[in-house]
Amino acid sequence: MNFNLTEEHMMIRDAARDFARTELLPGVIERDNKQEFPNELVRKMGELGFMGIMVDPKYGGSGMDTISYVLIMEELSKIDASASVIVSVNNSLVCYGLEAFGTEEQKQKYLTKLATGEQVGAFCLSEPEAGSDATSQKTTAIDMGDHYVINGTKNWITSGGRADVYLVIAQTDREKGHKGINAFIVERGTPGFDIGPKEDKLGIRGSDTHTLQFNDVKVPKENRIGEDGFGFKFAMKTLSGGRIGIAAQALGIASGAYELALKYSKERKAFGTEICNHQAIAFKLADMHTEITAARHLVMEAACKKDAKENYDMASAMAKLYASKVAMEVTVEAVQVHGGNGFVKEYHVERLMRDAKITQIYEGTSEIQKIVISRGVLRD
Ligand SMILES: Cc1cc2nc3c(=O)[nH]c(=O)nc-3n(C[C@H](O)[C@H](O)[C@H](O)COP(=O)(O)OP(=O)(O)OC[C@H]3O[C@@H](n4cnc5c(N)ncnc54)[C@H](O)[C@@H]3O)c2cc1C
């Protein structure tokens, strides 16, 4: 597999890096403290084409490949993983889901605004009793002829309080099990659709996570995505690509922490020399660099497979499993390299350590990734 970046890839990566340093960095600590959604920054990311990176330009997207997507995700996540999860959900769950499986009318009506960042999307699969076991959907969508009526609760929804368009998974026919599940497009403001309070989180605090309530929410039939019963497959297919985005987010968190640790180790002196001259610190940097490089290969492999239209389910699961583990390990060590300074907000590494944890949880926990990988290994 050839991981050499093209000139265009390098330009895209540099544009994302510049944006992260000049626009995301200045307010990142304050947004984390206040749990503030970066509204204005999302608008700017839309202008730069980051909200619809892989979407066909005819639907308002940037028409780039998955490699470009992971490069952008890595650069944004080095600085602000809260901003990058908004980008990731909008791109790989919402825009991809609509572009790959939506009707032409759905694409014209919704995708065109989501891909430009004019609107923000949310993906609603999880429920209080259906997390890892996503087949246990309690939310129902009853077929009423020309419309469906949705009832139930979704929780942990990223951009839940801010989104304009929600892709909602619900059970239509319980007897058919996961083959009786559908996916729907629900607009913000639809009567009976209520947004609950915001979660007070450990990390990615600048992102917006809410519980959503659906009480007799009428959704027109044309808002169902795919054939009747396609909803579970829809969720699994979109999540498989989503995991590449989260793997890239984890990679970015790790590399952001590593870059800070490397710089600090060359500046901070102890026992008459820069701390990087102590082998215990130098070895930490060696381990970080090695692990990050290995994670980057897995992320790039998954992205390349997706671009080559090969099956990438196992590759994306491996990339997410490994990159999220590396993000945890590297951020903990980056705090250690910073000593006491690592424990305060000003030096950024404590936030990166808190942000890293979510990459082992959402879009399938590490345990779920191992189920996907082990099934693949045993099948081959
Ligand atoms: C900040 C945040 C943002 C999120 N954003 C979204 C979103 O936008 N949309 C959305 O739909 N969801 C979202 N989620 C939900 C997320 O995907 C779920 O939290 C995740 O899938 C785990 O589900 P759960 O929390 O119910 O944990 P559980 O499924 O209850 O799991 C608890 C523990 O048991 C383990 N476990 C469960 N089953 C097995 C098994 N078979 N074998 C081994 N171990 C197992 C898990 O790995 C985990 O360690 C978000 C969550 C958070 C915290």
UniProtKB/TrEMBL annotation:
This is Cyclohex-1-ene-1-carbonyl-CoA dehydrogenase. The keyword NADP does not apply. Residues 122-217 form the Acyl-CoA oxidase/dehydrogenase middle domain. Its EC number is 1.3.8.10. Residues 6-118 form the Acyl-CoA dehydrogenase/oxidase N-terminal domain. It is an enzyme of class 1 (oxidoreductase). InterPro entries: Acyl-CoA_DH_CS, Acyl-CoA_Oxase/DH_mid-dom, Acyl-CoA_Oxase/DH_mid-dom_sf, AcylCo_DH-like_C, AcylCo_DH/oxidase_C, AcylCoA_DH/ox_N, AcylCoA_DH/ox_N_sf, AcylCoA_DH/oxidase_NM_dom_sf. Keywords: FAD, Flavoprotein, Oxidoreductase. SUPFAM superfamilies: Acyl-CoA dehydrogenase C-terminal domain-like, Acyl-CoA dehydrogenase NM domain-like. Its cofactor is FAD. GO terms for molecular function: acyl-CoA dehydrogenase activity; flavin adenine dinucleotide binding. PROSITE patterns: ACYL_COA_DH_1, ACYL_COA_DH_2. Residues 231-377 form the Acyl-CoA dehydrogenase/oxidase C-terminal domain. Pfam families: Acyl-CoA_dh_1, Acyl-CoA_dh_M, Acyl-CoA_dh_N. Gene3D superfamilies: Acyl-CoA dehydrogenase/oxidase, N-terminal domain, Butyryl-CoA Dehydrogenase, subunit A, domain 2, Butyryl-CoA Dehydrogenase, subunit A, domain 3. Belongs to the acyl-CoA dehydrogenase family. It comes from the Bacteria.
